[in-house]
């Protein structure tokens, strides 16, 4: 049975997850980081703060970055935006303004996620290159209207060639996690 933190008691920094977990925004623990919570949330968070021509999830972006990343850092690439499942996707200009407050919070979630899933921190440069390439393609497609560029990239990377609705993005995120984490079974959502 899930235990839910009272929604009105938000001053304490605790919040509920979709699976019934409770996370402390001030002190996230590795055992409170759940892949099903991450997949569910990222599949419903829109890239670019929603300022795009159609819904495109952070989960789809993460699977795409994973496809672009070298074989030795696929799991790290998939989970590169996982903190956003708990603290939201903050657009880059605002993140820059808030960096003194936001960055320490983001880093605590990164550390909890790295510990929970046994991620290496040595591949950040490889992941950043894949992330920036994906960002350029997504920007062209979703803010400048060149949707074909993104669809071509998805095809080249053997991903479904359309903008995925949240339930598809969530499932493909979980399947990709299982593939690269060494789990041979699918997680049931």
CATH topology type:
Hypothetical protein af1432
- Strand-pairing-aware structural class: mainly alpha
Total number of strands: 2
The helix fraction, in percent, is 40-55%
Give the total of domains: 1
Determine and state the CATH class. Answer: Mainly Alpha
Topology:
Blueprint: E1 14-16, E2 22-24, H1 35-44, H2 58-68, H3 74-78, H4 84-87, H5 92-97, H6 99-117, H7 124-142, H8 147-156, H9 166-181
Antiparallel strand pairs: 1-2
Helix pairs in contact: 1-9, 2-7, 2-9, 7-8
Care to describe what's here?
The protein is mainly alpha-helical and 189 residues long. It has a single domain, classed as Orthogonal Bundle (Hypothetical protein af1432), CATH 1.10.3210. The chain is built from 9 helices and 2 strands, in the order E-E-H-H-H-H-H-H-H-H-H. It has helices at residues 35-44, 58-68, 74-78, 84-87, 92-97, 99-117, 124-142, 147-156, 166-181; strands at residues 14-16, 22-24. It has a two-stranded antiparallel sheet. Strand 1 (14-16) and strand 2 form a beta hairpin.
């Amino acid at each position: 049975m899930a235990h839910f933190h009272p929604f009105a008691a938000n001053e304490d920094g605790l919040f509920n997850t979709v699976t019934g977990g409770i996370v402390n925004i001030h002190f996230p623990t590795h055992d409170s980081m759940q892949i099903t919570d991450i997949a569910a949330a990222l599949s419903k968070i829109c890239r670019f703060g929603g300022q795009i021509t159609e819904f495109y999830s952070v989960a789809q972006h993460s699977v795409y970055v994973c496809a672009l990343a070298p074989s030795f850092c696929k799991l790290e690439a998939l989970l590169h935006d996982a903190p956003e499942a708990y603290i939201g996707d903050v657009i880059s200009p605002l993140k820059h303004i808030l960096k003194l407050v936001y960055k320490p919070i983001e880093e605590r979630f990164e550390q909890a996620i790295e510990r929970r899933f046994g991620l290496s921190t040595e591949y950040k440069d490889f992941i950043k290159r894949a992330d920036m390439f994906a960002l350029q393609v997504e920007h062209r497609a979703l803010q400048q209207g060149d949707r074909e560029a993104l669809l071509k990239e998805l095809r080249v990377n053997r991903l479904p060639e359309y903008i995925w609705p949240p339930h598809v993005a969530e499932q493909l995120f979980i399947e990709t996690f299982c593939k690269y984490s060494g789990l041979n079974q699918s997680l049931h959502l």
